């Protein structure tokens, strides 16, 4: 069994201090503008307490329930924002044409990350590093310095379906330290040598079978809630026969092609690159920024879009997540986080659309 300790609230505070003392830039969940966000925090950071999150189709609210630390899942931010940020400087060019590549590699601690988002990181790793013949150095350097403090979900939102996609709610791998909140305290578990070094310095009680059973029962309750009546075995093959399904026409009547689903998705990775030149022409900066396949010009060749209809663009997005991606990388591009459902302004539920297509 990996190193695991039963600790109290004070050790959560100590965990943050230990990471700060090691020079990590800390990123943790905070409540801001009535949304739980991941953002930079200081060494005096405290996990938000007493919050309860309610998510639905096009619906998000945070309430105070006065107890517990992790009765929420996530807002619209994901770890992608920090490894593959919305806007990123790639290089700068001087008048002499000398190029200065800009690569950030500051050690980063991602705190409070859930199982679905940790799985999303492994998917991004394949895209940018592992299965890329030209690894992305900007992503790679940031990824190498990441320390992950994960949280096992003992609460699930109504839009979560990690149980269906096999990505949660329990964190199996890809973490340094994980936390499970049970009634008696917090089970803090080491998942790497770096994590073990941290957990060894935390004060805690011996973990008994009753604690592990309670953790398992809490996790299984969440797992059952996040399972759909949808068989993902060979789903990628079944969807390929549905390219002309009338369901796409129904989706087109509702979809705004706003791209909100791609902005909040923890695995969407499309981007565009542009050069910005100062007005006096003395310098040029190459910028990478997120792009979305819902934009009409995204598929344009010689100015003419290949996918001119909303139906075609939505079909491309859904098929990529649940079919094409599997053929590219051997896994689905969806981790069941449910963000695309919550943050869709018209409440399109991708779970329902996939089920209709293959039923």
Describe the protein in words.
- By secondary structure, this protein is of the alpha+beta class.
- The chain folds into two domains: 4-87 and 106-225, no CATH class; 235-268 and 293-358, no CATH class.
- It has 13 helices and 15 strands.
- Strands 1-11-10-9-8-2-3 form a seven-stranded mixed beta sheet, with helices on both faces. It has a four-stranded antiparallel beta sheet with strand order 7-6-13-12, with no helix packed on it.
N-C termini distance: 42 Å
Structural class: alpha+beta
Compute the gyration radius: what is it? 22 Å
Q: What topology, given as strand order, has the largest sheet?
A: 1-11-10-9-8-2-3
Global morphology: globular
Main beta sheet? 7 strands, mixed
- Residue-averaged pLDDT: 94
Total beta strand runs: 15
Keywords:
single chain; 359 residues; alpha+beta; 2 domains; 13 helices; 34% helix
Give the topology.
Layout: E1 4-7, H1 9-21, E2 25-32, E3 35-41, E4 51-56, E5 59-64, H2 80-83, E6 87-93, E7 99-101, E8 108-113, H3 115-130, H4 137-144, E9 146-151, H5 162-165, E10 177-182, E11 185-190, H6 193-199, H7 209-225, H8 235-240, H9 247-254, H10 260-264, E12 271-277, E13 284-290, E14 300-301, E15 304-305, H11 310-329, H12 339-342, H13 350-358
Parallel strand pairs: 2-8, 8-9, 9-10
Antiparallel strand pairs: 1-11, 2-3, 4-5, 6-7, 6-13, 10-11, 12-13, 14-15
Helix pairs in contact: 9-11
